[in-house]
Amino acid sequence: MGRKIEIKKIEDITKRQVTFSKRRSSLLKKAKEIAISCDVDVLLVAFSPANRLSKFCSQNRYCIYEPTKIPLRCACYLSI
Amino acid sequence: MGRKIEIKKIEDITKRQVTFSKRRSSLLKKAKEIAISCDVDVLLVAFSPANRLSKFCSQNRYCIYEPTKIPLRCACYLSI
DNA sequence: GACTCTATTTATAATTA
DNA sequence: TTAATTATAAATAGAGT
């Protein structure tokens, strides 16, 4: 899609953020589509380099925990 | 992509599994691409209707817990 | 940042083997 | 069934606003 690129870290910050924004939305869209059409539950989480939770996609049955004191993040799925 | 379809549950089992297989691999590919090019950590988990962990994508710092006795699954990210 | 445009590449539904 | 092929639609890099 678009001009052909090699997949490696985009060094230009502005360009990287633009690409992230574009790809994030389409990744979310595709996760939703496979969840619906294939009847699966999907969890998608992205953490930025600044360690912020950038995004998640769910079937409304996931929860994301972000403890502040330990270097651990949990995303839990309730399969009930 | 392909013939235009409405996004809804595919009722035909064979067709649904074929679609799942195709979409799963491209979703994983895209998750890896955004992780690399945008320097973010991504976690992607899919649970099948049979409650099996179908897939996950990571930066090698995620771990998936699958307790068998409780209806809860955890995907944990170590941000160290 | 957040949109728009579009040329180009990728993804994929349907089909065929 | 599982794997290619094909025809078509979607995603997106780059450029401009």
TrEMBL record, chains A, B:
GO terms for cellular component: nucleus. InterPro entries: MADS-box/MEF2_TF, TF_MADSbox, TF_MADSbox_sf. This is MADS-box domain-containing protein. It is found in: Nucleus. Residues 1-60 form the MADS-box domain. One of its GO terms (molecular function) is protein dimerization activity. SUPFAM superfamilies: SRF-like. It comes from the Eukaryota. PANTHER family: SERUM RESPONSE FACTOR HOMOLOG (PTHR48019). Keywords: DNA-binding, Nucleus, Transcription, Transcription regulation. Its main location: nucleus.
